[in-house]
Amino acid sequence: MSTLLDVKQLASQRAGRTLFADLSFSLQAGAVLHIEGENGAGKSTLLRSLVGLVELQAGTIQFFPSEHGLAQEWRQHTLFMGHKSAVKAELTALENVALQAQLSGLTQVDAWQLLETVGLLGLEDLPAGQLSAGQQRRIALTRLWYSQAPLWILDEPFTALDTRGIDLLQQRFAQHIEAGGAIILTSHQALTWQPEQLQRLRIQGGEL
Amino acid sequence: MWRWLHPYAKPETVYHLLGRWLPWATAGAVLILGIGLVWGLLFAPADYQQGDSYRIIFIHVPSAMFSMSIYVSLAIAAFIGRVWQLKMADWALAAIAPVGAVFTFIALFTGAVWGKPMWGTWWEWDARLTSQLILLFLYIGVLALYYAFSDNRTGAKAAGILAMVGVINIPIIRYSVEWWNTLHQGATLTVFERPPMANSMLFPLLTCILGFAFLAAALIMQRMRTEILRQELRRPWVKQVFGRPAATGERS
Amino acid sequence: MSRASSWTALTAIMKRDLMVVMRRRSDILNPLLFILVVVSLFPLAVGPGPDILGRIAAGVIWVAALLSALLGSERLFREDYLDGTLEQLTLQPQALPLLSFGKIAVHWLLSGLPLVILAPLCALLLKLPLAGWGTLMATLLVGTPILSAITAIGAALTVSLGRGGALLSLLLLPLFIPLLIFASGAVEAALVGTAAWPQVLLLAGLSLLTLLLAPFAVAASIRVSVN
Amino acid sequence: MQFDSWQAFIEMGGYGFYVWLAFGVSFLAMGVLVVQGLRARSRLQREFTQEQQRQQRLARRKQEVS
């Protein structure tokens, strides 16, 4: 198995407080990394610093096959989804999905198909602002169905989803892993699905 | 070059280095500026047209000169901070900007006070004064943005971008203000465009300019040290600077 | 990333912004109404005599335009910041300055261009002599892109602050001064019968320069703001 | 020496008010800058001391609990 991500001696501070220090791990293709920790432990900060949204205090992040510094390269190989769903309330579900795909540079995306996959068919012409939080989340999650990125970094992907939604998402995870991808995620719920290679990483108040 | 600079890029090293230079800069400022001002006020001859009122020149010209170059140095620091990701260059903004703003204010105020006996009015929309006024606004903008963020580091970066945008704009602003001034036939303080100044006035002026340079350096160094401490307050090395507190901690 | 995908992303962001704003038309209308109201305040304040109104007309219209640009600046990035779009944009493989340019262009289309169309009405209200109308519209046409571009920089810098209003005007108004000077200077030149085209050309040049550089400043500001 | 007397120096050939106003305000502004810089430093010192005491309290409480 090849290594997708290699993280060495990562350290981060937020508002002067050390969240984590000397954090090292590596991720193989086909593995799932579940990051655990209490509220405020720095899970989100860790994920955000992996994709360069938060400045690193120390440490190196190597994306296989490229160095973190080569911005163009790794951005194509990673997909990040944070707490916020980047769904426009004024646009309909269908428009949201289509424009989201186009923003990633893809023109050949069947938005109807995607909506059907995430179970939103029938709601396609409602403004997203009128949908529930879980439904908006599903709109955002359609990205997972066309993304070419091998590494997914997902911050609380199950938030607001019902059990069916969670199952659907985990099925998609399984496909991704099977295809040789890798996933880093944070979640307060335990995964109901057991991937073959599941790593756990616990962050708490500066120590590991 | 870069390798040589690197060891100095540690906040702790810079803090102590500045601490070593600061007394010299302060002494230089006090001494040179003192000599320059006494020379200018007491020994330089009176101007044949403006009488003794021209003596304002000994603070007006140096502060006006440095108000502009300090803004440029602000932008250079911001540029270094962005391109080489040197966080200390970002912090330097907080040290440099207030000094520049005060210099600009001094240039503006002395210009206006000088204008009263010359033009008969406290405020004239003269090209130079107007440019100074706009420069003051630019400084205030940078400072306001710097302190608007609760996270100091974000504030420093944002203010840096603004400073760079501002420095690109400065020549355009200057040119536009000059053009506007000629369009409206405003008054111009012509003291600088006269035939070369007599040496008896020029030398004290040059001394004052040098003194202001030292003064700016000393003020900026002092502020830079404070800024380093602020940003690094929770780092271990700061403990040695402030000393461990007496083991009181008893709650009354 | 290929050129085709960059183009797709650029059109996508422009389409998205246009669609969002078209569904909330008050966002376009309110700044324009603001200008109209400000413009109609002046005759009440300085008296309706045509000589004084005509002389200050161009300046008043331009100052109103600057203020209304600040008023509408929230729309540029605020929503995108809150709903996470901005974060996603910084993670796109496409160049962020390109996407920023798209946002600036849409902003201009929906705030600058309507202003050009509104200008004759303002000129009429302020009794601007007919000789100045063409020049006024020309300066608005070439000058408002600067307004959009610089406003975008300020909006991107202050988007994470939430209460950016007064701060934003402090940051941006000094940067608008050359625009104000050249634009009202051009109209004045037209009114006294001298050539106004040098100033208009100068404004056009400034406009191009700003449009060239501002997207990079906006991109850098966005990266700082999402941190 | 350009001035015959102390009085003449203060009067500055009739421009005394302007000259001294300019110099006075300039030095005042610099003084404010210096004082403000020094106060910022002592404020930091205070902040630092409070932080240290807070940590000591926390450490003591931890000890008491364990």
TrEMBL record, chain A:
Single GO biological process annotation from the record: cytochrome complex assembly
Organism from which the protein derives: Pseudidiomarina aquimaris
Superkingdom field: Bacteria
NCBIfam families for this protein: ccmA, PRK13538.1
Entry keyword Disulfide bond: no
Residue stretches making up the ABC transporter domain: 5-208
Pfam families reported in the protein's UniProt record: ABC_tran
GO molecular function: ATP binding; ATP hydrolysis activity; transmembrane transporter activity
Protein name listed in UniProt: Heme ABC transporter ATP-binding protein CcmA
Keywords noted in UniProt: ATP-binding, Cytochrome c-type biogenesis, Membrane, Nucleotide-binding, Translocase, Transport
Automatic annotation (TrEMBL), chain B:
Domain Cytochrome c assembly protein residue range list: 22-184
Segments traversing the membrane: 21-44, 56-80, 92-114, 129-149, 158-177, 197-221
KW Cell membrane (keyword) present: yes
Topology class, membrane: Multi-pass membrane protein
Gene Ontology biological process: cytochrome complex assembly
Location in or out of the cell: Cell inner membrane; Membrane
Keywords from the named record: Cell inner membrane, Cell membrane, Cytochrome c-type biogenesis, Membrane, Transmembrane, Transmembrane helix, Transport
Entry's Gene Ontology molecular function annotations: heme binding; heme transmembrane transporter activity
GO CC annotation, single: plasma membrane
Pfam family, one: Cytochrom_C_asm
Principal place of residence: membrane
Family under the similarity heading: Belongs to the CcmC/CycZ/HelC family.
Function: Required for the export of heme to the periplasm for the biogenesis of c-type cytochromes.
PANTHER family found in the cross-reference section: CYTOCHROME B_B6 PROTEIN-RELATED, HEME EXPORTER PROTEIN C
Protein name (database record): Heme exporter protein C
Species: Pseudidiomarina aquimaris
Upper taxonomic lineage: Bacteria, Pseudomonadati, Pseudomonadota, Gammaproteobacteria, Alteromonadales
Gene behind this protein: ccmC
UniProtKB/TrEMBL annotation, chain C:
Annotated InterPro entries: Cyt_c_biogenesis_CcmB, Cyt_c_CcmB_bac
Record's keyword terms, sorted: Cell inner membrane, Cell membrane, Cytochrome c-type biogenesis, Membrane, Transmembrane, Transmembrane helix, Transport
Membrane topology type: Multi-pass membrane protein
Chief place of localization: membrane
Keyword hit for Mitochondrion: no
GO cellular component, one term: plasma membrane
UniProt xrefs under Pfam families: CcmB
Annotated compartments: Cell inner membrane
Transmembrane parts of this sequence: 28-46, 52-72, 104-126, 132-159, 166-187, 199-222
GO molecular function ontology, one term from the record: heme transmembrane transporter activity
One record GO biological process: cytochrome complex assembly
Domain of life: Bacteria
Family according to the record: Belongs to the CcmB/CycW/HelB family.
Function statement: Required for the export of heme to the periplasm for the biogenesis of c-type cytochromes.
NCBIfam families (alphabetical): ccmB
Name of this chain's protein: Heme exporter protein B
Lineage: Bacteria, Pseudomonadati, Pseudomonadota, Gammaproteobacteria, Alteromonadales
Gene responsible for this protein: ccmB
Automatic annotation (TrEMBL), chain D:
Chief site of localization: membrane
Keywords: Cell inner membrane, Cell membrane, Cytochrome c-type biogenesis, Membrane, Transmembrane, Transmembrane helix, Transport
GO biological process: cytochrome c biosynthetic process; cytochrome complex assembly; heme transport
Gene Ontology cellular-component terms listed: plasma membrane
Subcellular location(s) per record: Cell inner membrane
Residue ranges crossing the lipid bilayer per the database entry: 15-38
Membrane topology recorded in Swiss-Prot or TrEMBL: Single-pass membrane protein
Family to which this protein belongs: Belongs to the CcmD/CycX/HelD family.
NCBIfam families documented for this protein: cytochro_ccmD (TIGR03141)
Function in brief: Required for the export of heme to the periplasm for the biogenesis of c-type cytochromes.
Descriptive protein name: Heme exporter protein D
Gene: ccmD
